[in-house]
Automatic annotation (TrEMBL):
PANTHER family, alphabetized: D,D-DIPEPTIDE TRANSPORT ATP-BINDING PROTEIN DDPF-RELATED, TRANSPORT ATP-BINDING PROTEIN
Species name: Ventrimonas faecis
Residues covered by the ABC transporter domain: 5-255
Molecular function, one GO term: ATP binding
Family: Belongs to the ABC transporter superfamily.
Name used for this protein in its record: Dipeptide ABC transporter ATP-binding protein
InterPro entries with a match to the protein in the record: AAA+_ATPase, ABC_transp_ATP-bind, ABC_transporter-like_ATP-bd, ABC_transporter-like_CS, Oligopep_ABC_C, P-loop_NTPase
Amino acid sequence: ADNLLVVRGLKQYYPVKGGLGKEPSYVKAVDNVDFEVRRGEVFGIVGESGCGKSTLGKSICKLIEPTEGSIVLDGEEISKYTPKQMRPIRKKVQMVFQDPYASLNPRMSVRDIVAEPLIIHGLTKTREETDKKVVELLRRVGLDDYHANRYPHEFSGGQRQRVGIARALAVQPQLIIADEPVSALDVSIQSQVLNLMNQLKRDMNLTYIFVAHDLSVVEHISDRVGVMYLGNFVEEGDKYSLYQNPLHPYTQALLSAVPIPDPKAKKERIILEGNIPSALNPPTGCKFHTRCPKCMERCKTEAPQKYQVGDDHFVYCHLYDTEEAKKNAKAAENA
Ligand code: SF4
Ligand code: MG
């Protein structure tokens, strides 16, 4: 496969002071994660709040320094890069955030907000060229020239997110990591922004990592989806297999809670006991074992490996521990 991003063994641990014992405690926000993103696809990452999905997004583009692991972007290992070495990489990978209001400087006009990355990266040479480029970017996201002289507070949430997207696009990135980009918007506006993102992806050959807690939103936009629980992926696959045939007990429970349009279609809601445990000293073995309706003895001590259960469908769960699934997963990893 033509991978734009390959992540291996990625960890994002935060030491916690004031622990009782001799051993230091860590919040394991991202705990030994492996995944790939193929060029031109939308890879959706879903999970409840606190599962580590936002942290994962930030550590991939090194807004936070990963504790350990490898991040290969467009063939280049960037995990150990210094901020200076990251500068040219910032042209390849950009982030779009949930709350455009918080991520846009309120004292800057939209023109200056969108122009800033062009100037920082030396992508335009004259004031005229910059202005022209800004207008072009605003039009791309469905805004107009006259919006350029306005300030973020004069915009609706959807318009502000369009500005955030225009700013991200200014450097002509290959990869956009969008962290809950539509979660703060009204449902009607959500689909407009999602459609815009789809359009831009086609027009500009983009690849997205789309992080969200809303399963329907992720299904709508993604080609493949990874489900996270307590700092790990528990299942990943093409969206059709994953949504129609979820195999991990956690994914099954999550999806059973999504309302379906056809009220006659039978679906039994799986209610999980308790809340997602703390990422500080998470459960041993399979981290989901404390809530899993299918928990077996070995789940309490042994972390499940990755099993291949379909053409493009993987699951981390002992229920799928067969020789064949193991072999397939190894082969897929080396492909
Ligand atoms: Fe449940 Fe065990 Fe599978 Fe974990 S490994 S999801 S506890 S059955
Ligand atoms: Mg988040």
